[in-house]
């Protein structure tokens, strides 16, 4: 197998993995990445999207929503790990997104910190919207 530019052959030598580097964004408003929400470190798309990023790269590529088939393919080891099972190189300690961004999950939700990410739990009678972060 040969891989296109920006991709490298995985260890199993059967598939390519994305090695492109870009900024990770935690906020997207009407398909526009918010520069104020970037971590200012260049990371791969899976390092971003598997670690609570909402979009990645110079073209503001949206991350797949947690729980979807695309997310499970990109993040097979779960939140906090890139596609190949590594914690991101820039992640030396778990950041508590719930403390850092108190408005996560909306007024009717509770933010639950997890290693490298977070989950939203909604009050009874409410459910998560399509973004997966607001009740």
TrEMBL record:
UniProt entry tagged with the keyword Secreted: yes
Gene3D superfamilies named in the record: Laminin (2.10.25.10), TGF-beta binding (TB) domain (3.90.290.10)
Family annotation (InterPro entries): EGF (IPR000742), EGF-like_Ca-bd_dom (IPR001881), EGF-type_Asp/Asn_hydroxyl_site (IPR000152), EGF_Ca-bd_CS (IPR018097), NOTCH1_EGF-like (IPR049883), TB_dom (IPR017878), TB_dom_sf (IPR036773), vWF_C/EGF_Fibrillin (IPR052080)
Domain EGF-like: 94-132
GO molecular function, one term: calcium ion binding
Keyword annotations: Disulfide bond, EGF-like domain, Glycoprotein, Repeat, Secreted, Signal
Compartments in which it is found: Secreted
Main location: secreted
Coiled coil: none
Organism: Sitta europaea
One GO CC term, this protein: extracellular region
Gene: Fbn2_2
Domain TB: 22-75
Name of the molecule in the record: FBN2 protein
Family annotation (Pfam families): EGF_CA (PF07645), TB (PF00683)
Stored CDD domains: EGF_CA
Entry keyword annotation includes Manganese: no
